[in-house]
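User: For a reading group we're discussing how well predicted structures match intuition. Take Cytochrome P450. Before you show the prediction, I'll give you the sequence so everyone sees exactly what went in.
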Amino acid sequence: MDRANLPVAAVRLATLDGPPTRSMHELPMPKGAPIIGNMRQLDGDHFHRTLENWARELGPLFRFTVLGRSLVVSSERAAVTALMRERPDLVRRGARASAILEETITPGIFSAEGDDWRQQRKLVMRALTPEVVHNFFPRLVELTERLRQRWAKAAARGQKIDVARDLKAWTLDVTIGLAMGYDIDTLQNEHNPLQRDIETVFLRISQRVTSALPYWRLFRLAVDREADAAAQRISDAIAGFIAGARERMAANPELRRKPTNMLEALVAARDEPDSGLSDEAVIGNAITTVFAGEDTTSNTIAWLLDFLVRHPEQAQAVAREADTVLGQDAVLRDYRQLDSMPYLDAALREAMRLKPVAPFMILEPTADIVIDDVLIPAGTAIFTLLRHSFERDNTLTEPGLFQPERWLAPDTAGADDPARKLFPFGGGPRFCPGRYLAMAEMKMVLSMLAKGFRLELDTAAPPVEERFTFTMTPSVLPVLLRPR
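Assistant: Thanks. Here is the predicted 3D structure of Cytochrome P450, as C-alpha cells, for the group to look at:
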C-alpha cells in the first residue's frame, strides 16, 4: 500500500470513540543508527527539508528517533488543523521548544499556555487591531519614505544595496515604533546593536531547537555566552523603553485610559490592582513583539523579491498595479488603498505558499490523543509540517511554479479558496495577532519598491538556499535595485 496516500482522521482524545488500534511505535520511520537513531540525519540549517523529504517517503504520519526518544511528524491538513484548533488546552507548544525560548529570552505570549496565555493574548490583541494599525499608518508612511529615500540615493550613485539587511532594519523600526512609540532608526544607524543582537539570539534559538543534546544547560560555549549577552542587551533596551513609558504616563495620566501604543497598554494593565501581570511579563511581551515582527515580515518580503527578480512578467504586473494605485505618489498614503492591490496580494500569497517563513510547528498534547487511529501519548513532540500539508492536499495546476495569477481566478472564492489550506499566520485560537500589521508593512514596502525601482538579478550572488534560523530565511537575496 502507498503510505503517502493514506487518509488521516482529525485529532481526538484517546478516551473518546473507542480505543485506538495502533501504537505510536507501529508508525513507519526512516532508517537510523543504533542508540542515536536519526540524530546524524538532522541538519539544523535544513531541518525542515529533512522532515518534508521523509514525509514524501513515509506518508502523512510517521516518527523518528533521537537518542531513544520518539518524535512524531504529521502533515495531513485535517490533523494539522485539528491540532492547532485544540490549543492552548489539549495541545500546547512543544515543551522543549518553550523551555528553550524561556531560557534564552524573557517569557511572553509566544511561550505562554492555558489561562496565562489567555490573559496575555487579550492585551496583545488589543494593541494590534486593524484600528491600531490604521492610527499608526501616518507613521508607517514616514518610515517607508525614509527607506525609499535611502534606496533612491544609493541607486542613483550606483551603490549596491543590502536589501535583506535594510528590510530587517525597517521592520524592526516599524515594530518598535508601533509597539513602543520610539523611533530608533536602525535603518540609517547601521551600528545600532539591537538588530545584530536579535539575529544572534534567533540563530541560537534555532540551533538549540534542532540540537539533540541540551549541552548549554551544563556548560556554555563562546556562542552561547555571546547569545546570553545579546539577550541581556535586548532586555536592557526594552527596560529603558518601559521606563520611558512610565515617565510619560506619570506626566500624562490620560495615557493610562487611552494608551497610544502596546507598551503603554501593558504598563497600564500591569499597574491595575490584582492584574496578575508582572514586570517580567511586560518585558517578555515587549520582547516577543519585537522578535515576532522583525524576522517573519522581512523574510516574507525577501522571498517574494527573489521570485519577482526571476519572473519579470510578474514583477511588471506588480509595478503596473503600483503605478495605478499610487498615482503621483512615491509611497502609498491612503490606508484604504492597502486593499486596492489584488495582484500584489496574490503575489504575497504565492510567496507564502512556496516559501513560508514557518514551514513547521512543534506541538505537544497534554493528554493522550489519537491521530489516524494511532495512540499518541501525552507529552510527545509532534512536528506539524505546514508547507507540506498544503503540498499533500494540493489541487493547483503546476504547484511548483510561481504563479500569482492562480489566486485571482474566480473559483478561488469561498470554500474552494486554496488559501484556506495555507497557514502563513498559524491557525486556531493562536492565530498570529500581528497579521494586520504584517500585511500592511509588506504592501507598503513592495508597492513603494515596485513604483520607484526595477529589480535586477545579481548574477554574481551564490545560489539561494532555504536556511532554518528560527524562521525560514533565504541564504542570500540576489536582488539589485535600479531606478525606474
